[in-house]
Amino acid sequence: MSIVLEKTWAVAEFNTSASTYNGTMLYIKTQLIAGAWDIVMCCNGDGVTEPSADDLWIDTGDIVWATAGSAHSWIVLSNNSLISSGAKFQVCFDLCNTYTGSGSCSGTLAVSYNAG
User: Fold this and answer.
1) Can you give the pLDDT at residue 54?
2) If we measure between CA atoms, which residue out of 96, 104, 98, 22 comes closest to residue 57?
């Protein structure tokens, strides 16, 4: 049985300079939690602070891109209304790579159907 998920997104144009990547991630998070998404767990890149279900991505300074194994930002969001059975659909934005100076940042987006 295949599942088709459909969602229409409206996103403003963003500048492509590296300084806007944190703003872009903050914007995406803010738009998702303003809708039907809840924060399951997140980390603002502070290697001392434990991950929290509180929103630790308050401003662009809370978003840290770094290599896997180093302190970096990540967030897991959950939505119970995307799937008709009420199953939890979760996404994880893991900012586990550094800005390379070539004009791009990269990270990992993981998706879990029926999570939790």
Assistant:
1) 87
2) 22
